[in-house]
Amino acid sequence: MTAAATHLAVPPVRRAVPLVLAGALVATAIAYPLSSGAARDVVSWTIVLLGSALSVAHAGLSRGARTGAGVFVLVALTAVVFESIGLATGYPYGTYTYSDTLGPTALGVPFLVPLAWLMMAWPSWLLGELLARPVRASFRRAARIAWAAAVFAAWDVVLDPQMVHAGYWTWADPTPGLPGIGTVPLTNLAGWLLAGAVLMTLLDVLVGRTRVGGSPRVGPAAPLFALGWMTLGGALAHAGWLGLPGSAAWGAGLGAAVLVVLAVQHRRAGRR
Q1: Concatenated DSSP letters for 57-109?
Q2: Facing residues of 98 across strands?
Q3: Exposure string over 110-127, b if 16+ CB within 10 A, otherwise e
Q4: Does 4 score more than 60 pLDDT?
Q5: Domain limits of the chain?
Q6: From the CB of residue 157, how many other CB atoms can be counted at a distance below 10 Å?
Q7: Which residues is 106 bridged to in the sheet?
Q8: Where would one find the signal peptide in this protein (predicted)?
Q9: How far apart (Å, rounded) are the C-alpha atoms in residues 246 and 84?
Q10: DSSP letter for each residue of 113-169
């Protein structure tokens, strides 16, 4: 093993950290539809804390400590800016209010919200990177950002109705919405696409400037597993336990569409 390889190697114990966090996240997510009241609030906090820890740990282990720290700061600041503007003006998401259940706030934004962005943002960027691999090199960065922003917004298609159902926030006018989802307006989806495009562009620049040579040093399996479970597992929970068939259908459909794209890419790559 060369000196460079030794420098880049991640000890097996540290390499296992994202997998352990992803496993704990999935186990906690399974508990969500089976709980209620104050216990469900605790489960929600735990899911977000585990998901944000997974994002930071994986970013740091796979691309270096500077990237891990940068992801945490960048996503948290971007979330607070977008959410505080949204609360004050109704743009770009529409008019909504948070409940007191989410606890302490900064500029009116509960601390839990930037952590939820963090939970969602890094896996979305990783999946965008994977989906953009077949694209011609000159267009790959734009494709990576576009895919990542779309995944980021699609994840919220499942998450937002669940959070409204739990009473964590309320929309002043939830219509028009996606077919089957009567509690969240289409303006929210448009807002998430805009926020996602901005955030993923910033993340792309950050990773490009801070990553260590030879990265990624750890594969994306753990964050992508968490993303897949939170989308497809969330859809199952919505259909079977939470009484949210509309968001269940959207989650299953969007998740299946991504899987089909990945399968087609894999098949084409195998023919080369």
Answers
A1: HHHHHHH-HHHHHHHHHHHHHHHHHHHHHHHHH-TTT--EEE-GGG--EETTE
A2: 169
A3: bbbbbbbbbbbbbbbbbb
A4: no
A5: 13-265
A6: 22
A7: 109
A8: none
A9: 29
A10: HHHHHHHHHHHHHHHHHHHTTTS-HHHHHHHHHHHHHHHHHHHHHHHHHHHHHTTSE
Question: Cα separation of 38 and 85, whole Å?
Answer: 29
Read off the amino acid at residue 153. A
Nearby residues of 261 by Cβ (< 8 Å), 6 or more positions away: 131
Considering only residues 35 and 267, tell me which one the structure prediction assigns the higher pLDDT.
35
DSSP bridge partners of 97: 170
The pLDDT score that the predictor gives to residue 133 is: 94
What is the maximal distance between C-alpha atoms in the chain?
61
Question: 110 pairs with which residues across the strands?
Answer: 105
Token pair belonging to 72: 């945490």
Whether the pLDDT of residue 3 is over 70: the answer is no
Helix (H, G, I), strand (E, B) or coil at 269: helix
CA distance 59 to 66: 9
